[in-house]
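Weekly puzzle thread! Below is a chain. First person to post its structure in token form gets bragging rights.
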Amino acid sequence: MQKLPAAFKSKVVSAEPLGVAWLETRTEREMQYYTQFVNMTHKIIEEGFSEKVITPGVTTTDDVVWWFRQKIRDLGLDTWFHTSVAVQRSDSNSFEHLRAFSDRPKEDLIRPGDLLHVDIGITYLRLNTDIQQHAYVLKPGEKNAPADLQKAFAQSNRLQDILTSQFVLGRTGNQILKGALDQAKAEGIVASIYTHPLGLHGHAAGPTIGMWDMQNGVPGSGDYPLYYNTAYSIELNSSSDIPSWKKSIRIMLEEDGYFDQSGFRYINGRQKQLYLIPSVVGNNAD
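Winning reply:
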């Protein structure tokens, strides 16, 4: 800048936006692969949260974690973080956000009546997925999850809709976050949103839309605007009172989506109801 003539100094701009734009923009060909890749992640979760893998009273959360890791390896894929499986159940433990991730018990025996949560992200062709879903372990005689758990799940689906309706070209991550939280509050939803860009990195370049401990906006990356042809992990949770459990729980969802000129869409759909795991013991079930 010292050597440039004065007439040119105002023409010098930061290259940072160009670097972010290159990293965040997904090509048409990448999106063709992404649809298949997210579908693979969904299929892995569907199998892991089934009687093929889980026998209530026998299988632990750690057993399921290592099943996921082995399954991913058998498919020739890799993970970009260590898969986690956590439990919420009818007990005296209150919800703690980090308990589902870094502070969870290493081994927790899975029992009938448990609400299971998985956080999984795999890497293929330099692209990454990041997904969280839930399953319910049926008690003997149950055909479906309790109505209050189903209602709690539907509420988090509604929160997803509220958030993605805020995806408008040019809005910053912080503006999207505020608009979504304001609408959620107006609808009586106790919400937390921590959505991030997705692509060549799991937590990728682009607009940050909240962090779990920064619900009033994220300086810097939260001020970056939304552009077309970009992908996101729609990551959030909502709190619900469960009368049958006499406590509150959190339904923590994360699904991968894409934003372009036609609006927002999920890359391979999203979970709309709980996976159900039969309450069987060994090989003695009918």
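Puzzle host: Confirmed. Bonus trivia for everyone else. The CA atoms of residues 27 and 229 lie 7 Å apart.
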